[in-house]
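Dear colleagues,

As part of the handover before I leave the project, I'm documenting each prediction I ran so the next person doesn't have to rerun anything. This entry is a single chain, and its sequence is reproduced below.
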Amino acid sequence: MSTHKLEIIGNSTLITLQGVKKVPAKIDTGAESSSVWASDITLNPDNSLSFCLFALGSDFYTGERITVQDYKAVSVRNSTGQAKVRYRVRLSIKIGKKNIKAGFTLADRSKNNFPVLIGRRLLKGRFLVDVSQLEVPYPPRIRDMELNAELEQDPQAFHRKYMDK
């Protein structure tokens, strides 16, 4: 496949997901599949699956329930090798100029920097990733800020607590 026709995106970008605009997404070429923050995931009596994108407290949460008949169960292995079973659904997404219907696993991403992760399966044949481009700045990690405040307050106590193990 010729690469000159592929749209170039950075390692983070703003997307439109199911009509919700300017959602920050992390582009992860190390991940095979894509994942989205979902809450209130329910299997209905008719075996349809319903869920909300994002959750209360998220700037992107609308409370709108999405109900799908077409879904699968998949086992997803994280970067530490731990496997979890998740539902995978197809959602409408717009990245750059491209409208795509793509598979996403539903996950609690409330503790992640980005509510959406875009993996290789969605990227392949559509985009080139230029890691020097950063459309969405990474938010500072709260835990790191707390750790550095503790380090600054008493470096010796910090070292004993965290490094002498």
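The helical segments are 120-123, 142-153, 155-162. The two ends are 51 Å apart (CA to CA).

All the best with the project,
I.
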